Amino acid sequence: MMRKKLLEVKNLKINFKTYAGLVQAVRGVNFELFEGETLAIVGESGSGKSVTSNAIMKLIPQPPGIYEDGEIFFEGRDLIPLSEKEMSLIRGNDIAMIFQDPMTALNPTMRVGRQITEVILKHNKIPHSEAKARAIQLLQLVGIPMPEKRFRQYPHEFSGGMRQRVVIAIALAADPKLLIADEPTTALDVTIQAQILELMKDIQKKRNTAIIFITHDLGVVANVADRVAVMYAGQIIEYGTVNDIFYDPRHPYTWGLLGSMPDLKNDVKEELRTIPGSPPDLIHPPIGDAFAARNEFAMAIDYVKEPPMFQVSDTHYAKTWLLHPNAPKIPVPESISRRIEGYLKEAKGNG
Amino acid sequence: MVKKLLEVKNLKLYFGSPSNPIKAVDGISFDIFEGETLGLVGESGCGKSTTGRSIIRLYDITDGEILFKGKNIHAGKSRKELIELNREMQMIFQDPYASLNPRMTAGEIISEGFNIHGLYKDKLQRREKVAELLEAVGLNREHAYRYPHEFSGGQRQRIGIARALSLDPSFIIADEPISALDVSIQAQVVNLLKRLQKERKLTYLFIAHDLSMVKYISDRIAVMYQGKIVEIGMAEDIYHNPIHPYTKSLLSAVPLPDPMTERKRQRIPYEYEETDEHAKLQEVLPNHFVYGSNSQLKKWII
Fold first, then answer.
1. Contact B256 A346 (CB under 8 A)
2. Inter-chain contact A190–B43, Cβ cutoff 8 Å?
3. How far is A246 from chain B (nearest CA, A)?
């Protein structure tokens, strides 16, 4: 079955003017997204993952932001040249966003019900009573008990998890084709996080929504993603299916991310692998590979020339010179390969 | 025989009016042994931070006793005794942005304790001590002259750790010390805490909601729910053989970086069960305690 391509981002470059100089926050990002699929974008703070997703919604304030280059095709139409008026028809309607902090995303002075019907009425010409009925349906869909009563309450009467459900209900109000979730569970407890992730997957199944999931938690990525893009210093440095990234990581930065999580299953008490140093200054991005200074396997060429995206398989790409045919063969660090073997063995054992 | 450093006995801390109290901590008892790390986990509002803050006397407790090296820390004390206690017990806070005074340099922040305790009065000696502390946490001596806004989140947390170490304490309460940091920085800070523990023979109470890091750093884990400790035991036992249904539910919600396991993940929901007045923390296996009534424990252990 051919799936429909919903979104295609091509060579996206976003800069910000600051007093210190021009910050190159996103430096040539490419990816595509199909209907009903979840793409997870992982990376540390400052890697450009939130800027990328805000750019898709055209939420970058200009100034100081500048869409330096690139295209964002949504259903074949480039969003970058669109006017604010045209964009407001797409926002909420076709593309909706879930933010990290449910308290600041909701209006504390407005009843929850009205915050949902507001969205429905903006995008549909229907009577008020009908909008209310739909809002109550949405509250039910996101698993809020007693939706009729909850409809009339204010955000402060909801717990953190329930508030995030309201934010999801608002995002779903206009039945978007693409949902961008920027760290939607980071502020929540693990048990609530698990419920929200289940809810999002459930809704995706019912409505065939495409999801871009931004997070720094690799456990969450493993849970929700079909494909994963790892970002570093404003670029995607590894890209593949969730199995490619977790069982066959190729970029040393991805190794570092995986190694810095403690291995719960295999009871290893050795030191955690860390990535030494800190991310580069994006006012003066380094020449060559941006990760070179923190990379224990860096070669001379890493300081001279930026690596291209090397293809590992049909689905898997990584931006590191280590994949060049002439590069020395560097195996995955032992602590990570041991862990992966453990996971794979267990998966086999379970059938 | 390992010595008990801290004994918490039937600690209660109620907020609000006495007629309708909010029972943030509702009768918990546990010990912390010298040189170990006790992880305290639970969801927001379960009382874990309140417990930490009661131990370091940021709150006046409602009932119960907290003994540090055998001495009751909440009983009336002279100023001298309090100062001695404060030197022994230090805290690392969650938010590295809010816990450092933006108007003080890193050096001033770290050496503030010296003024209070009248230590290192000689300027040169003090500068050396600050430099030594900065180097111990992986910063360098020039950083003493910088202000908090010049540091990244991970570096700020290192300053918070250096401040906690400045008076050579024996016991450190770390309240969510890594949850505001990026993954790779979390690992750096956790490695640092482990190294410092070894070098300085520190005892930690590590409060967090992130179970995977807690399991990694802790020798023993206590699980809190609604103001009570529902299970306490060795980290491995809690993780591999949880008995209380709440612990099971909590563990079933922790996502692992393993997609094939995640695809099959079944979350176990927790349904609150009323306990009768006979419910208590009982030793079900060696060094593994679970809170419940006899009939509940019988049901859970099978």
1. no
2. yes
3. 7
**CB contact (8 A) between residue A273 and residue B187:** yes
Instruction: Give dist(CA B190, CA B249) in Å, integer.
Output: 26
Q: Write the residue in A189, A261, A278 that is nearest to B43 by C-beta.
A: A189
C-beta atoms of B262 and A216 within 8 A: no
Verify whether the Cβ–Cβ distance B270 to A191 is below 8 Å: yes
Provide, as residue numbers in chain B, all residues whose Cβ is less than 8 Å from the Cβ of A246: 257-259
* CB–CB contact B267 A198 (8 Å): yes
In the numeric block, which tokens belong to residue A152? 């009339």
Q: What range defines the domain where residue B104 resides?
A: 4-301
Query: What per-residue confidence (pLDDT) applies to A1?
Result: 53
Task: Report the gap between the CA of B192 and the closest CA in chain A (Å).
Answer: 10
pTM of the predicted protein model:
0.87
Residue A38 — very low, low, confident or very high, per pLDDT cuts 50/70/90?
very high
What pLDDT was estimated at residue B1? 62
The number of residues in chain B equals 302
Strand order of the β-sheet with A38-42 is A95-98, A178-182, A210-215, A38-42, A227-232, A235-241, A317-318, A310-311
A145 Cβ contact partners less than 8 Å away, ≥ 6 residues apart: none
Phi and psi at B58, nearest 5°, equal -85, -20
* Domains within chain A, CATH numbers bracketed: 5-35+63-225 (3.40.50.300), 231-349 (3.40.50.300)
Burial class (CB in 10 A: 0-12, 13-18, 19+), A351: exposed
Q: How many domains does chain B have?
A: 1
CA distance to A347, B30, B161, B220, per residue, from B288 (Å): 30, 12, 31, 10
Ranges of chain B whose pLDDT falls below 50 = none
What is the average pLDDT across A212-232? 93
Closest Cα in chain A, distance from residue B21 (Å): 20
pLDDT score recorded for residue B79: 85
The average confidence (pLDDT) of chain B is 90
Nearest-angstrom CA–CA distance, B148 and B100: 7
pLDDT digits (tens, 9 = 90+) for A128-181: 999 999 999 889 888 888 899 999 999 998 888 888 889 988 988 888 999 999
Give the domain CATH number at B82: 3.40.50.300
Looking at residues A302-316, what average pLDDT do you find? 94
Phi, psi of A204 (to 5 degrees): -60, -40
Residue A29, strand partner residues = A12
